[in-house]
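User: Could you check the structure of this?
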Amino acid sequence: MPPDPAPVFEPVIGNPAPPPARIVELYTCGVCTDEIVKGEYVQHLLHCASGTNIANLVNLAFQLQSKIRKMENSIRNYFGILYVDDPVELPLGKCYHCKHRYSHKGWKNCFEMRRADYMMAIFEKTDYDYLEIVKRYQANFKKAKIMMLWLKQKRELEEKKNGLRIYGVDPSNRESLKQLPDSILKPLRQLKAKHTRNLRTFRAKLGVETERLLEFYKNKRQAEKTTFITVLLAVDTMNPRQTPLQFVNVA
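Assistant: Sure, the predicted structure tokens are below.
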């Protein structure tokens, strides 16, 4: 069924209610474990994870996240346009249904389409790009998180090694470390083994989370596709179009 009509707002008498609280996105730094506001996270990583490309990976992930939201908003906007039968604005003048610009200009294929059919064409044309951006977004964040744990553990190990200077050895020199008895080196070896296990476990955990998140994005998009098409099919049935689809920004 079509969406409810827009509500009519009565004038407010007295003091108006305060605006809704703004949601603040926080990210936990995987290196120092501090909680950082999203807008300051990349700058924080430039300092906290200096000498690595972690900040660049996170920055790229945020850019891809913004693209995902932009594509989602675009789909919802097209649904609203088709629902009220406004002219469809084409990105860069390219029709979502017609294969060639000349076929679109020639008044073939798409102008007599139902609203629901054109909505389906929009989904089909953008599904692949949408999921590819989601995958790239996840891949960059996954790599950044793994590198954060690696860097955190590396610094912990270096701190332990520096503690061996009291024995008159150079922690950065393997031959120098071999001069120490096993009883002193054993905790260091145990820490290295622990770090290796941690990384292996963390990679596996992120792999599961990545698959789960990808499935979430797929299901969310499919749910919107089903809802939008169902609503537009009802509109096409109850109020069939009397004129061809209108387009603007046609190249």
